[in-house]
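Q: Entry one of two.
A:
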Amino acid sequence: MIYLIAILCIISIPDFAQQPTTYCNPMDIDYKYNFEQLNEKISYRSGADPVIINHKSEYFLFVTISGGYWHSKDLLNWKYITANRWPFEDMCAPAAVSVNDTLFLFQSTFESRPILYSVAPEKGIWEFYNRWTPRLPKDIGPWDPALFHDPDTNRWFMYWGSSNVYPIFGAELDHSKKLAFKDQYKSMFWLNQYEHGWERFGPNHSDPFKPFTEGAWMTKYNGKYYLQYGAPGTEYNVYANGTYVADDPLGPFTYAPYNPVSYKPGGFATGAGHGNTFQDNFGNYWNTGTSWIGLNWAMERRIVMHPAGFDKDGQMFANTRFGDFPHKMTSKKWNGKGDELFTGWMLLSYKKPVTASSTLDTMSANKITDENPRTFWAAKQNKPGETLTIDLQKEQEVKAIQVNYTDYKSDIFDNKPEQVYTEFKILVSVDGKKWEIVRDLIKEPKRDRPCAYIELTKPVKARYVRYEHGHVASPILAISEFRIFGNGSGKSPATPKKFTAVRQKDQRNVDLKWEKVSGAVGYNVLWGIAPDKLYQTYQFWNDEPNMFELRALNVGVPYFFAIETFDENGVSGVSEVVGVK
């Protein structure tokens, strides 16, 4: 008998690990398992309700129930820090503010709790600023608090609220009394789902259940006060940030007609609500938010960050167009709404065929290219050498990869660094026989990367892209999405034809329709309150229906819509703008 032995040829090319220049949502941080999950005996990594503070030209990220926080000098590389002093209940929906050389921090609470401060947060050193804040009436809070210092008046304020019963509250604080409440707190505003379509609850605003408001945040711009809030609920794709505007920190506040300001209901990382707005070292604004996973538990979430700003008319916005594709991290002041940060690296892996080395039960490997974080593949064993291979079906130029892990039947509740870390290799091939290693995390310092984003030093021509497993802490290796970014060699797609927008009798809704483009991967519907203010984006895939009922409009506000196509080669031109009254 003659045995034919196929020899797999693997060539190691120079180490592709380098300081990244791009980022991709969800943010690539070491999301934590937490003690709260012990109540339900469900183990999963999660992060929500982010606050990024620019403190002395460095950045600090605080996230719900993470046992600590993250520090970065560039918004790309984040180091986890465990503090010397931390709330016993951990830090849920934290409030933070930087004033001069001091960073202040406060937890959500319905009790009396201290405000912490630090002049060396990069070292994890915190002290009590005050021991106890005054207790508010039952169920009032302050839950989901925000601290605000007005540099022009030297006045201090707190805003809070997390409820579908109560409004967003606000109160002035007395700095001379260690930030005790200076006066009686008062209501700032309530949700109004009957006039604000995007404030309606449920997937695509389809549930009549009373919506939730939460996640207050204050930004001062050109003498105006923008009080941001999250709605209608964290466990849906339409979780968004809105804003009211006033001339005084305690109002009266006026609802902004262009709401919501940050909205991302389509694509892979859906949801953009309950975050904060901050400026980087170049004066650019960013808006953070919470993206929904919801596979193991409704509160299983991730963190996203989008370019934001204020236009010449004072309209606040966040740019979520291609919001979960790779973006450049800027090193200067950008123009307009930040479209220049989009790398132009397109999604090459959508619905492409996948081959797995093994599959547990019916966990199909093809689930890792469907752009759905709630479907996944699982290997029969969590052992080194398990592989996933995506066939791009033709040679493409690969520039970045993102691997999103799933906690399937996990038993991890303690974030032990010697146990909770991620290792894998990425290999590419033109013919499926000769392979090149383009990134090897096994050779790099150990860290956990549930949403690992890998930017290659230089583009690589490949038809096949392979994930080769090294280590995850969970007893089962499970991956929800293996995303490949780069560019094809063809022409950009055509602009969709026959795009129409018809407003319904219920002015909160509009019916959108367009003619499909052959070979397209998907479409972006762009919309806003003026032809030159199309700040909102709703992304659709080409295999979805080419009509949609958008239920996010505000009553009494005219709107304008346009559409563009995208595929592996690029993005089409934008269609003519159509308006509805």
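Q: Entry two of two.
A:
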Amino acid sequence: MGRRKKIVQECERLMDNPENIRNIAIAAHVDHGKTTLTDNLLAGAGMISQDTAGEQLAMDTEEDEQERGITIDAANVSMTHEYEGNNHLINLIDTPGHVDFGGDVTRAMRAVDGALVVVDAVEGAMPQTETVLRQALREGVKPTLFINKVDRLISELQEGPQEMQERLLAVIHDVNELIRGMTEEMDDIDDDWTVGVEDGTVGFGSALYKWGVSMPSMQRTGMDFGDIIELERSDKRQELHERTPLSDVVLDMVCEHFPNPLDAQPRRIPRIWRGDSESDIAETMRLVDEDGELVLMVTDIGVDPHAGEIAAGRVFSGTIEKGQELYVSGTAGKNRIQSVGIYMGGEREEVEHVPAGNIAAVTGLKDAIAGSTVSSVEMTPFESIEHISEPVITKSVEAKNMDDLPKLIETLQQVAKEDPTIQIEINEETGEHLISGQGELHLEVIGQRIERNQGIPINTGEPIVVYREAPQEASQEVEGVSPNRHNKFYITVEPLSEDIVEEIQLGNVSMDMPELERREALQEAGMGKDTSQNVEHIHGTNILIDDTKGIQHLNETMELVVEGLEEALDDGPLAAEPVSGALVRLHDAKLHEDTIHRGPAQVIPAVREAVHRSLIDGEIRLLEPIQNVRIDVPSEHMGSASGEIQGRRGRVDDMYQEGDLMVIEGIAPVEEMIGFSSDIRSATEGRASWNTENAGFRVLADNLQPELIEEIRKRKGMKLELPPSIDYI
């Protein structure tokens, strides 16, 4: 019997024992060594050869991942590890580190209970380290820390034991500061989730040279930092690997310190599911009951050329098996399961069934998207997976041959299904489709995959930046009149506070919540009591308040009012860009008694006009997306590197020395950062390393507003002259 077959059989045997299951994700900043570390764990579990581990990058299964040397898609694998006489089943997800693929990290965190955060010993905690920690803790996922590339401290920086320990303690301190800041307000986390060397929640090592240590492993093997430095300096890395193999240290840490589903689910369910906590289904999820009703949360959709669409996700209750007919949240009818499997890296191994507490890969869920709740009975779906950043760059995509158009539309719809952080706008009439994503690389990868995997030659346009529009002050009351003059709406607009906007973005305030809970969340974020009681609708980061009193027929007309409001907010008055952060109040309305005179053709234009005019009176402005930028560069190139940020309408906030490099931190507009990579390379002779992270939107400078608004209106084929009432720009 092949080794792989044996591992699959062992996994099947262990699946029914949730006490010995660990669901974990490996997360880190880009290039800190996640995939190399995963190779070591696979080799330790006997799934790939020890000799090629670290170079094989077994979890980067796509051709473009191998070419670029980065992880693009989160990849799942199941493996076994013996710890303290018990065999454990470890379901692991290797996640991307590049900021453009952060959506994969957020979705992976929904499926797991523990996150192994990897940090480069030389670079320390970086912006994306903070982001992945926040993503983990928001989902109630417990962190541990592995400090990688310790060999560089010894061989490159020539540090002695004392300096090395100080540096490593500084990294641990930074990570703990982040964890402390994020867990302070989490009532459901009673324990201290900070990491420490003494309790074994921190490991050190080198994924490239396959050795690792932690306090428990040092006590077991009798090795200390002095021995490690000696072996590393005398080039005895093989001996180091044999005496203290990385995979044992990390997998022991996983088994010892990460919660099993029985411990994790009672804590995580209230955080990710807002259904009735007294119901039977809530009880079976808390108990990880494999005999209960089936509940599966889909976290990832992939396509297999032979099997078609594969949905991967966490089974929270019940047992999933072939032939079941299941409900998919938000769709009618049922889907029939065609096969059930577990992941072995890039390949799926079919099994008979997968019980609660595991991560399963199933085919047949044709209606599911990433984020769907799949169940055997109709139930309240899980909270939607909130992605921290929103799309900031758009490209147009069109098929080179018109014959490929239907196939391209199908492929784009599939892309949107697989990756909810991508937004697709399909224009059937012109054949030009707009695809919006997290950054240039994100869109470039999608474009390449359409050409390579689907064989559709495409033309892509230049990247276009996505803007927003937002009111800057409170408006006067504005009247909106319907075309037949029989219906009138009285509306004002004011800016929403940043705290409330953030709560909406994080999913802490939504219309799906019980009204009382929503009211409390809004009041906590600073909204007045009376206002929070009258919330009628939330659209994007905008809120509609119904301040009217006893108006006849308004109830049955409200649906049309909301439709008019959404139309007005999707296309703002300046340049038809989406409006954000607006609090719209409906103060009064005069409606015709006869239904026929207050239909969609009357109400929608009246509301749309009133909202646009009140936005203009509230001095609406264009907002542009900005990015945090960090550049690490030798000091002789510091001037030219900071000049690159300042020359792009950016701002340098901080400069400090770290080791032999200078670190420059600042912010710059996304529009100006297009093409940054080639410019910074030539300005610093290729010696700078940098990363960017989306940092939301800010108001564009007044002197740039008219020109940009005209440019966008021209691109969209709108009239170039603005309404005369926009005289403040």
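A: Comment on entry two: The chain is about 35% helix and 25% strand. The first helix runs from residue 3 to 14.
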